[in-house]
# Entry
Amino acid sequence: MSPPAHPRLLAAYLRPERHRVAGLVGLLVAAMLLPVAGPVLIGRFVDDAAAGRPVSALVRLALAFLAVALAADGLQLLVTWLSVRLAWRVGNRIRGDLAAHALDLELAWHGEHSPGLLIERIDGDIEAVTRFSSTAVLDLLGNAVLLVGVFAVSLFIDWRAGLLLGAAVLVASALMAWLRHVAVPAHDAEREVNGRLYGDLEERLGGLEDLRANGAGHYALHRLHEHSSRWWHAARHASYRGEGAWAAAGSAFSVGSVLTLGLGVFLQRSGQVSLGSVLVLFRFSQLIRQPLERIAEQLSEFQKAAAGIRRAGRLLATRATIVDGPGASLPDGPLAVDIDHVRFAYGDGRTVLHDLDLHLAPGTVLGVVGRTGSGKTTLGRLLLRFWDVTDGCVRVGGVDVRRTTAAELRRRVGVVTQEVELLRASVRDNLTVLGAVPADDDRLIEALGEVGLGPWLAGLPHGLDTVLEGTNTLSAGEAQLLAFARVFLAGPGLVVLDEASSRLDPATEARITAATDRLLSGRTVVVIAHRLATLERVDEILVLDHGRVLEHGSRVDLAADPASRYAALLATSSGPERTPEVAR
# Structure
């Protein structure tokens, strides 16, 4: 699907604000037309003074000029305040929609787009749009209104002077329009390069420990220099094209100002206009300088904003390959799992699972073991429908996961991963995931007590209101237990447990073990096993190798059969620190 044109996209977000926009435009027109009255009053003052009019009349003109100037400044301030509020309100809506849309896209898409790049798309591009809409648009539209007013009054004074000023404005506008057409692609390319720079930087900072440990710091710096060089060349190219508008407007102004002043002198000497009118025309020739220069200066901001909204349109036009089904509900209680002859391949055609066939009764605890790359993680993600199967069918609770919604699936299927993500928010918000899981404080305290975090909560300075500064606030074990508490609160019928306790001390491991025992009770659980201690509590074992089922059966029976793969695994393992991989 081709991305929507950026004017249509921005118009769609402005449509709910159309009444405010109409009022803002009215105030803007008034604010920009008032300065046109100032030179007219000055010209009238000069003519009346030359004609010997009473001082009282001149005072009235001076006071009128002062009132017009103050009113113009007041309206400008009001328009700026209203436009900033409007721009940020619309910009935040676009940010929210972009973030929600990105979250709906499948994992494969996110694998191809770094977090840094997404931050630039969702925040950086829209910040350019907001900055332009809140301030620069006033210069562009407001000064355009001012130029029209100057042209109209100049025509009234003398049609030749008006046409001359109008011609200067048209020439400058044509030059800027052409430069805009030339410069927008350059600014688009600049932001693309900038996004890649931040994306690469984010990845390098995320792996800082590994980079230092392996002496790859020079490589990271080399990559930074490469991206910085590309960004510098792209920014210079965009600047050359964008800043050319300023020079073009200044040239058009200089020529128009000189010609207008010469024409005014000629008309006054021939008796066709008064001295005050010459002064008005001269003031107008000076007055149009600022609008032309401001338009030229803000052209680069307009180009950045146009590139930003265009890229936002491209992101919103990216369609998710995984869409919600018609909305089938999952039953209550433990959920059965049926995987019928499933084959899964990545977008590059590489097959990960081959004809996988698996059936779990409700309440069964399954341990999945296998070498790295055997398909264990893929199996868990198919149950959560992070990916869709290539062939076959995955049913949870007797319902094809493609026939339910993501919200229903997340409600009834929980997951605890190796790497627990904590929000920079309160304990309450971390447990409820910012309110996604409704629960009162008593239930939250109970859930923390169930996983052994009651003493930890009691030691916090503000209890549930204590703000956690991300994952580093807690130890690895405490973060894992907090993730368990989230599952207890949601009460799912199926839990995918990517068990990770290899880095824990014995005391914390005991707490994890106790919490895991509670988690396994009354639920169907798929344990992607990394330690044999977890396997001792499962009902069935599934052994995978290169995406194929090597063995599936009762844990007790397989352990008792010396010819089984699982028995060989137990025999070759010297203790709980051994990684359970399939013996060959």
Observations:
- Residues 217-269 form the longest helix (53 residues).
